[in-house]
Specification:
heterodimer, A: mainly alpha, Cytochrome C Oxidase, Chain A, B: alpha+beta, Helix Hairpins, Immunoglobulin-like, 3 domains, 8 helices, 12 strands
Chain lengths: 581, 378
C-alpha cells in the first residue's frame, strides 16, 4: 500500500518545494486583483472565469426557455367573437426566443462549459502538471470566447435572429432585413470555434507531454480520457464550421450559388455541412459529462471503476463514430440510399454509450454509496441518460424517425441527453469539485433539496414531450392544436420546478462563497491528484511534483490522502495467491 | 366575424380521426392510425418500445437494487469484487449490437416499402409557401371559402382525399424549406424550393379528418401553416372534385375576393376580424380608404393603386410597424382577381358588410331572374 509523495504537504522539505499561497489569494486592492485575473495565465483562474461566464450563459439561455414554455401554456385560438386569443408573445418574438435559447445553450454554455471550465481547472492537476502546455494560448482562448460570446448575444438580441440555432438555408439567407444579422451570429460561431480549437489543441498536448512521472496512459483518470477524446473532436470537427461560415460569406458577397436555390445552390448541401460539424459537436457536449460521471461514481461509491479500459476506449470510439453519422439529421431530406447508410452507422454509436452505462452500474456492485449531492446527480444521470439513450433507438430506425423527425419527441430526446446527460453531470461535477475550487463547503441539505427539484422538474418538463411528439406535435411551434394543451401545461409546470432547483443551487453556492465553512483537502475521499493538494490549490498546484504509485481508482487498496482510515475503512486484504482483480 | 365565413358547408364536415380504437398504451403515444402503412409503422414502433422497456429494466433493475443494498453504512467498507470481466463485457457489447442490427433491418424494410407508390396511384401536386399548403388536383379543383376551418388562430383549408385508393403527392416549395407532415399516416417529407419530392399514402376509413402540419421551421407563421385532409368515399371524392372546379365568373366579386384571400394564403398574415387581431401584416378590417404611415416617412391612402402595388411589389411601401415579409403575387393573381380583392376589402367594415348583404341579395335576385328567363326561353 502506497501513497503519493505530493500528499505529504508540508511534512518533509523536499527540493523544489513550492510554498505559494492559494491561487485565490488577493495580491492587492480591487484594481490589482482585476488586473491579476484579466492577465492571468493560471489555468485555474481561467477555468473559474469560464465557469462564471458559462453559468451566466446558462441562466440567460434558461430565462428564454422559461419564456418559451410560458407562451406554450395556452394555445392560440380563434374565439367565438372571431378574436385571436391565447397569445402571450407574437410569433416573431417567440421565434427569436427559441433561437436565443438554442444558440446560447449550445454555443455559449454546453460546448465550453465542461471542457473549458472543468477541463481547464482539473486536467493539469489530475495529470500532476503545473499548468496546461500553452498557458498564454489558453488565455487567448478565453478572450476569443469572451469576444465571440459578446458578439453572439449582442447580434441575437439586437438583430432579432429567428432562424433557430441551425440557421437552415434558404430561410436564413433570404427575405427580411433581420436575416443579415444571421451572418453576424454565424461569424460569432466562427470566432467561438477558434476558442474551441485552441483549447482542444492545448489539452491534447498537455495530456501527451505533461503527465506526472509514473503516470502511464492507463493511470490517467477517466475524466482526462473523456476530455482528451473531446479535444480531438474539437480540433478535427470545428474547422468544418469555419468552412461553412466562409461559404455563406462567399455566397453573400459574390452571389455564387452554393446554398441559395435562387442562385442555383442547394439548401440541403448546407444541412450536410452544418451537421458534419454539429453532430460531432453533440459528442463534444456529452463526452466530458461522461468523464465527470466516471469520477463521481467511483469517489462517492468508494469503488474501483469497472472496465477502465472499456470506458477509456469507448470515449475514443464515440469520438471516431461521431464523424460518420451526421446524415441521420436528414432522414426526411436525403435519398433513401443515404438514409439506409446513415441509419446503420448511427446504431453503432449506441454500443460505446451503452458500454459506459453498464460499467457505471457494475461499479456500484458491492460498493459503498454515499448519497451526497454529487452522487445523487451521478445516479440521476444514469437514469436520465438511459432514457435519452433508448429513445435514440426510435430516431435511428428510419421508419419511426420519419414520423418523429422534427417533433417534440426529438426535443425531448436531445434534452434528455444534453440536459439530462451533460447538464446533470455538470451540476454534479460542480458540487463535487466546488470545495476544491474555492476551498469552501456548501450546505449539503440545500444541495440535496436543489437536486430533487432539478431532477423532478427535469423529468416533468421533458418526459411528457416524448408523448406529445410521437402523437404528432411538431417542434418550433409558437402555438398548437388544443389537443396538446394539457401536455404543454405539465411541461411548463416542470420548467418552474427546474427554476426553483437552480435558484436553490445558486443561493447555496453564493452562501458557500460568502459564509461557507472551510473545506478540507479531501472532503469525499478521492484518490485522483486534485485531492492531494490544498483546497483551494496553491498557485503552482502542488508543493512538489507528484509521483504516481497507485492508480486513480484503487479504492480497495489505498486510504485516500488526508483521510482517516476510521472514516474510510478498507476491505480485508487479499489472501496471498489470490488473483488481484 | 365576417359573414362570409358563416356560409354553411356543402359537405357535412368529417370529425377528426380518433385514436380511440388503439389500446391504452398505444393511445398514450400514437395518434389515430389511418393507413395501412401507419399500422406497419406502429408495429415497428411498439417493437422498439418494448425493447427499450426491456433494456431499461435490465439496466435500472440492478441499479436500483445496488443503490438500496450497497448504501453506505458507517465503518463498513466496500467489498472487493472484480473490476474487469472480458466475457461479461463482450456479452454486453455483442448482444445489443445484434439487437440493433435487427432494428435497423426492420426500420429499413418498412421505410423502403413505404417509399414506392403503386403504379395506379393518383397524383396530386402540393405547393408550399410561407405559410400555406395547396393541393393541386388533376381537374383543377380548389377548396371553396366555406371549406376553411378555424385552427390555431387562423383559418386553414380542408382538402379531400379518397379512402382506400393510393395517392402520390409531388411536392415543391415557392420559397424556403417546408415539411409536409400527416401524423395519422406516419409520413413526412421535406419540401424544397429547388427540387420535387414525393410521398404516397393510402388513407383508410372514409369520414375521417386529418391534420397536415409543417414540420420544418419556416418563419413567423410556421406553427399556423396547417391544413386538413378529409377522407371521402371514392364516389364522394369524385363528386367533391367536380363540385370544386371554380368558375370566377359565376361568383359574386366580393366572394371571389374572399376565396382568393384564403386560397392565396393572405389569411396567414392578414386578419379580417372586427377586433383587428394582430398578424404579421396589417389587419384588413377597415383597411379600405385608411391612411397609413409608411416606413421611411410619408403617408398613403389604401386605394386601388396601393393595393395593386402591394400585391405585385410588396416591398415598395411597407406600413410602419410591420416587417418586410411578403412575397410578390405577380403571375399568381390576375387583374380579375385583383379587382375581386378590392371588392372583398371594401366589405370589411360595418358599412361594407351592410352594403355587401344588400348588393349580394340584389346580385342573386338578378342572377336568378336571368336564369329563369333563360329557362323560360328554352
Amino acid at each position: 500500500m502506497t501513497t503519493i509523495d505530493a500528499s505529504s504537504g508540508g511534512v518533509g522539505a523536499h527540493a523544489g518545494e513550492h510554498h505559494g499561497a492559494s491561487y485565490l489569494h488577493r495580491k492587492g486592492g480591487f484594481m490589482v486583483t482585476v488586473w491579476d485575473w484579466a492577465t492571468t495565465i493560471d489555468h485555474k483562474k481561467i477555468g473559474v472565469m469560464y465557469m462564471f461566464a458559462t453559468t451566466f450563459m446558462f441562466f440567460l439561455g434558461g430565462m428564454f426557455a422559461l419564456m418559451v414554455r410560458l407562451e406554450l401554456f395556452t394555445p392560440t385560438m380563434t374565439n367565438d367573437a372571431g378574436q385571436i386569443v391565447g397569445q402571450l408573445f407574437a410569433n416573431d418574438v417567440y421565434n427569436r426566443m427559441f433561437t436565443l435559447h438554442g444558440v446560447i445553450m449550445v454555443f455559449l454554455f454546453i460546448i465550453p462549459a465542461i471542457p473549458a471550465a472543468f477541463g481547464n481547472f482539473l486536467l493539469p492537476i489530475m495529470l500532476g502538471a503545473k499548468d496546461v502546455a500553452f498557458p498564454r494560448l489558453n488565455l487567448m482562448s478565453w478572450y476569443i470566447y469572451l469576444f465571440g460570446a459578446t458578439l453572439a448575444v449582442v447580434a441575437l438580441i439586437g438583430g432579432g435572429v429567428d432562424t433557430g440555432w441551425t440557421f437552415y438555408t434558404p430561410y436564413s439567407i433570404t427575405g427580411t432585413a433581420m436575416h443579415q444579422q444571421v451572418f453576424l451570429v454565424t461569424l460569432a460561431a466562427f470566432i467561438l470555434g477558434f476558442s474551441s480549437i485552441f483549447t482542444g489543441l492545448n489539452f491534447v498536448v498537455t495530456v501527451h507531454k505533461l503527465r506526472a512521472p509514473g503516470m502511464g496512459w492507463f493511470d490517467m483518470p477517466l475524466f482526462v480520457w473523456a476530455i482528451y477524446a473531446t479535444s480531438l473532436i474539437q480540433v478535427l470537427a470545428t474547422p468544418v464550421l469555419g468552412i461553412t461560415v466562409l461559404l455563406l460569406a462567399i455566397e453573400q458577397a459574390f452571389h455564387i450559388g452554393i446554398f441559395d436555390p435562387a442562385l442555383g445552390g442547394d439548401p440541403v448541401l448546407y444541412q450536410h455541412f452544418f451537421w458534419f460539424y454539429s453532430h460531432p459537436a453533440v459528442y463534444i457536449m456529452i463526452l466530458p459529462g461522461m468523464g465527470i460521471m466516471s469520477e463521481l461514481v467511483t469517489v462517492h461509491a468508494r469503488k474501483r471503476i469497472f472496465g477502465y479500459k472499456a470506458i477509456a476506449f469507448s470515449s475514443l470510439g464515440i469520438a471516431a463514430v461521431s464523424f460518420i453519422v451526421w446524415g441521420h439529421h436528414l432522414f426526411t431530406a436525403q435519398t433513401a440510399m443515404a438514409n439506409a447508410i446513415f441509419s446503420a452507422l448511427t446504431f453503432f454509436v449506441a454500443i460505446p454509450s451503452a458500454i459506459k452505462v453498464f460499467n457505471w452500474v457494475a461499479t456500484l456492485y458491492k460498493s459503498s454509496i454515499a448519497f451526497t449531492t454529487p452522487m445523487l446527480y451521478a445516479l440521476g444521470f444514469m437514469f436520465t441518460f438511459t432514457i435519452g439513450g433508448v429513445t435514440g433507438l426510435f430516431l435511428a430506425t428510419i421508419a419511426t424517425d420519419i414520423n418523429l423527425h422534427d417533433t417534440y419527441f426529438v426535443v425531448a430526446h436531445f434534452h434528455y441527453v444534453m440536459m439530462g446527460g451533460a447538464g446533470i453531470a455538470l451540476f454534479g461535477g460542480m458540487h463535487h469539485w466546488w470545495p476544491k475550487m474555492f476551498g469552501k463547503m456548501y450546505n449539503e441539505r440545500a444541495g440535496i433539496l436543489g437536486f430533487f427539484f432539478v431532477f423532478v422538474g427535469f423529468n416533468t418538463t421533458f418526459f411528457i414531450q416524448f408523448l406529445m411528439g410521437s402523437q404528432g406535435m411538431p417542434r418550433r411551434y409558437a402555438t398548437y392544436i388544443p389537443e396538446f394543451e394539457i401536455y404543454h401545461q405539465i411541461s411548463t409546470v416542470g420548467s418552474w420546478l427546474l427554476l426553483i432547483g437552480f435558484l436553490i443551487h445558486l443561493a447555496n453556492f453564493t452562501h458557500s462563497l460568502l459564509k461557507g465553512p472551510k473545506a478540507p483537502r479531501n472532503p469525499w475521499g478521492g484518490l485522483t491528484l486534485e485531492w492531494t493538494t490544498d483546497s483551494p490549490p496553491i498557485e503552482h498546484n502542488f508543493h512538489h511534483e507528484p509521483v504516481i504509485h497507485h492508480g486513480p481508482y484503487d479504492y480497495d487498496d489505498v486510504v485516500p490522502p488526508f483521510c482517516d482510515e476510521k472514516d474510510f475503512p478498507l476491505p480485508a486484504p487479499l489472501k496471498p495467491g489470490a488473483a488481484k482483480h | 366575424m365576417n359573414a362570409l365565413n358563416h356560409i354553411a358547408s356543402t359537405l357535412a364536415a368529417n370529425p377528426m380521426a380518433s385514436n380511440a380504437d388503439l389500446n391504452l398504451l398505444e393511445r398514450l403515444m400514437l395518434s389515430a392510425r389511418s393507413s395501412d402503412y401507419a399500422a406497419t409503422h406502429d408495429m415497428v414502433y411498439m417493437v422498439i418500445f418494448w425493447l427499450s422497456v426491456a433494456f431499461f429494466v435490465v439496466v435500472m433493475g440492478p441499479y436500483a437494487y445496488f443503490i438500496v443494498k450497497y448504501r453506505r453504512k458507517p465503518g463498513v467498507p466496500a467489498q472487493r469484487s472484480v473490476s474487469h470481466n472480458t466475457p461479461l463485457e463482450l456479452a454486453w457489447s455483442i448482444f445489443p449490437l445484434m439487437l440493433l442490427c435487427v432494428l435497423f433491418f426492420l426500420g429499413f424494410e418498412v421505410f423502403i416499402d413505404g417509399q414506392v407508390a403503386p403504379a395506379d396511384a393518383e397524383t396530386i401536386n402540393v405547393h408550399a409557401k410561407k405559410w400555406n399548403w395547396s393541393l393541386g388536383y388533376d381537374n383543377g379543383a380548389l377548396p371553396k371559402s366555406e371549406d376553411y376551418v378555424n385552427l390555431v388562430g387562423t383559418s386553414v383549408p380542408v382538402f379531400a382525399i379518397p379512402a382506400g385508393k393510393p395517392i402520390r403527392l409531388v411536392l415543391e416549395s415557392e420559397d424556403v424549406i417546408h415539411s409536409f407532415y400527416v401524423p395519422n399516416f406516419r409520413k413526412k417529407i421535406d419540401v424544397f424550393p429547388n427540387r420535387y419530392t414525393t410521398m404516397w399514402f393510402q388513407a383508410g376509413n372514409a369520414g375521417e379528418r386529418h391534420y397536415v402540419f409543417c414540420a420544418e421551421y419556416c418563419g413567423d407563421q410556421h406553427s399556423q401553416m396547417a391544413a386538413m385532409l378529409d377522407t371521402l368515399s371514392p364516389e364522394d371524392y369524385d363528386k367533391w372534385k367536380t363540385d370544386h372546379v371554380l368558375n370566377p365568373k359565376d361568383m359574386f366579386p366580393a366572394d371571389y375576393g374572399a376565396f382568393l384571400y384564403k386560397q392565396q394564403g393572405c389569411n396567414a398574415c392578414h386578419t379580417v376580424d372586427r377586433a383587428k387581431s394582430a398578424g404579421t401584416g396589417p389587419p384588413w378590417w377597415g383597411i379600405w380608404g385608411r391612411t397609413e404611415n409608411i416606413e421611411g416617412g410619408g403617408q398613403i391612402t389604401v386605394d386601388e393603386n396601393y393595393v395593386r402595388e402591394s400585391i405585385y411589389t410588396p416591398a415598395a411601401k411597407i406600413v410602419q410597424g410591420f416587417p418586410n415579409q411578403m412575397n410578390s403575387f405577380q403571375g399568381l393573381i390576375d387583374p380579375e382577381g385583383i379587382s375581386a380583392i378590392f371588392a372583398y376589402m371594401q366589405t370589411l367594415s360595418d358599412e361594407g358588410q351592410a352594403k355587401y348583404e344588400k348588393d349580394k341579395a340584389a346580385w342573386e335576385a338578378a342572377k336568378k331572374a336571368a336564369e329563369e328567363a333563360k329557362a323560360a326561353q328554352n
